[in-house]
User: Fold this.
Amino acid sequence: MPVLALRVTFVGEHGWELYCSSEYGLALWQTLWAAGRPHGLVAGGYRAIDSLRLEKGYRVWGADLGPETTPYEAGLGFCVKPDKDFLGKDALDPRPARRLRCLTLDDPRAVALGNEPVRLAGRVVSRVTSGGYGYTARASIAYAYLPADESAPGAPVEVEVEGRWVPGTVVKGPVVP
Assistant:
């Protein structure tokens, strides 16, 4: 059957996206499932992909990144070529006031998904941009923009999950290298 296979690295592991016309979908699934079962193939959906990308520290456009964030704020300064000329270069500050930080929550059952308030030193300073449970790390992981000078790895934080302030820690990402 005709299939377009694209190499995907968003999950941080070897992976592929397969595209075919809808009339081939069931046959493609059945063929792959039968061929993969002896090798331990498991079915994984979007939440599995999201868990892996959280553990690897991969950012999501529209949640962790957007037009209002800079590469330096998002921890992507390594992508900036300061010796090149480009639109917006003069506006970039390599030492931003806030940074996207990876947080792990002390209670792995408390899962922040996004928009939950984050406290640092007893005051609300941000909201979770994205989060979820990391199945490999066995930890609740969240990302939030925090004041750069107060949020080095090891800094204690609290995230409000379902009406309860859950203690956590700023960690040096990725949680799973």
Summary: The chain has two helices and eight strands. The chain has a mean pLDDT of 94. The radius of gyration is 19 Å. Residues 22 and 28 are 10 Å apart (CA to CA).
